[in-house]
Write a structure and sequence with these properties.
single chain, 5 helices, globular
């Protein structure tokens, strides 16, 4: 004799409807609470994706403006984007952490920090540009880029936290 609970459950993440004996349709995944949690998670990914798109567009625009102004012999645009992104992430992190000056929900904080600022900062571009400088024999530029990026971004995060503490008073 088979009981209703003895049937194998569908694979996790299956998105199909199944008929019951009464002719009603139900999701075979789980209870309604789990479905709501899955919808929240999907919305969070959409918000982070939107933030990443906004940050990427801002990065592209700003680095382009700087490249047109200063040229492309040295990646000043990427350096400026990394420093300003580091400053802003330090500022936002300090202002919105538990006990910070501003209350920001976890989804909004992730939208800004993971989405917008993750799409904005460009350490992958930094790495590629530094490697290209080194491969082209521009060892001085490559070394200066590494030293300035690390030092200035750490300084910018620290300054962002200091500004946040001043605002918090």
């Amino acid at each position: 004799m088979k009981f209703h609970g003895d049937e194998p459950s569908p694979p996790r993440g299956a998105h199909f409807l199944e008929s019951t004996h009464a002719g009603q349709s139900v999701f075979p995944l789980a209870a309604k609470g789990n479905l709501l949690e899955q919808l929240r998670l999907k919305m969070e990914y959409l918000w982070i994706g939107l933030g990443s798109a906004l940050g990427g567009v801002a990065r592209y625009w700003l680095s382009g403006v700087i490249a047109r102004r200063f040229g492309e012999a040295f990646p000043v645009g990427t350096l400026v984007v990394n420093v300003t992104g580091s400053f802003v992430i330090g500022l936002v992190a300090a202002l919105t952490e538990p006990g910070g000056r501003f209350l920001m929900g976890v989804p909004a904080r992730r939208f800004v920090m993971v989405g917008v600022l993750g799409g904005y900062t460009t350490f992958s571009s930094f790495s590629l540009q530094t490697l290209n400088l080194a491969r082209d024999g521009e060892w001085l530029y490559a070394g200066v880029n590494v030293a300035l990026s690390v030092a200035l971004c750490l300084l910018a995060v620290w300054c962002g936290r200091i500004v946040a503490e001043m605002v918090g008073r």
